[in-house]
User: What shape does this take?
Amino acid sequence: MKIAILSRNPSLYSTKRLYQAIQAAGHEPLIVNHSVCDLIIEQEGPSIIYKGEKLTDVDAIIPRVGASVTFYGTAVVRQFELMGTFSAVNSQAIVRSRDKLRSLQILSKAGLGMPKTAFTNFSKGGEKQLIEHVGGAPLIIKLLEGTQGLGVVLAETKKAGQSVIEAFHGLKARIIVQEFIKEAKGADIRAFVVNGKVVGAMKRQGAEGEFRSNLHRGGKATIIKLSRAERQAALGAAKALGLDIAGVDMLQSARGPLILEVNSSPGLEGIEKATGIDIAAEIIKFIEEGVQKKSPKRAAEQ
Assistant: This one.
């Protein structure tokens, strides 16, 4: 099979590992910078031009679409889907997961545990009510467009919370407000889901004095065995958003696992190094099964 990795940076750990896993499985790897693909839409059907040539005979794609290019990246994924190519991550699922508010609404509808969250329009004078909705201070304030821990603020007091919310509203920045889960102690869990199974999990502990556990913010990762409730929460979150590959971030709380976010392009470096599991190989196995189901005759010819 020819499997294309949609990535803007071939030197990234995740891109390199997927490339190696495709080769190890006996397939042909291809790295495609989705940000410079041209999409041709005409009566003869959809096609993609990359580096001056039409992309053909691609059996499957692995989208590694960065948050900053979600709109165009998902358009490229959708074009491949319309051309009959198997995608490891559905384009609509990427869109759902990237919209933090929408994804939380979907998870709430599915009855999954999460920190109490509030969202409002730029209502002047509504800061106090917003804080009360999530149980008062301390509280977490997040930019809807933030990634990797950026745009996340811990407000220790109601007064500080009001000031931060007023500042963001003054800048017309969309935010959500969430309750602070004290018992999590600056740590969270990342469960890596592939094809309806948790293939690896790690606990990320924030640096001393840091409430954010992101590895990009200096957090440390260690392997962890999930409880039954944590495993079910991770699988339920991925299923609710329609993601066959997902990184589900959860907090451990007194009332059980609480989902923070579901990532449609989870990085492989932290999880593979913490667990020692070949996550990239698990992704390729899933793609092989997916292509086989989609087109048994074509897969058999590979």
User: Anything to note?
Assistant: The longest strand covers residues 197-205. Residues 98 and 139 are 22 Å apart (CA to CA). The mean pLDDT is 91. The two ends are 5 Å apart (CA to CA).
